[in-house]
Design brief:
With 93 residues, the chain is an alpha+beta fold. It has one domain. The protein is 17% helix and 41% strand. It is globular and about 45 Å long. It starts with a strand and ends with a helix.
């Protein structure tokens, strides 16, 4: 497992992260689903380059974080390599 400090806007959706000075794990999501009493989903999308910080253990409510906030991304080496290759390919086009 590799740890990389990046702004939230640069970390992929569904990535596991921690705060720079913390150990509690969260999942970053660009949108979240909330179900009403009838079981119908409502999708809430984060504004701009912000994302939702969702407690990986489900102990707290999701909250929005700015795309500028830096977090520690916990990524498998192969996932990080693929991410960097995608960015390099996208930047050269």
């Amino acid at each position: 497992m590799m740890k990389v400090i990046l702004p939230v806007r640069d970390i992929p959706d569904h990535a596991t992260v921690t705060k720079v000075t913390g150990t509690k794990k969260y999942v970053l999501k660009g949108d979240i689903r909330v179900y009403d009493l009838q079981g119908d989903p409502r999708v809430i999308t984060a504004y701009g380059d912000s994302k939702f910080l969702v407690d990986a253990q489900g102990d707290s409510d999701p909250c929005a974080v700015s795309g500028d906030k830096v977090m520690v991304w916990h990524a498998a080496e192969c996932r990080l390599r693929a991410f960097l290759e995608e960015r390099e390919t996208g930047a050269s086009q």
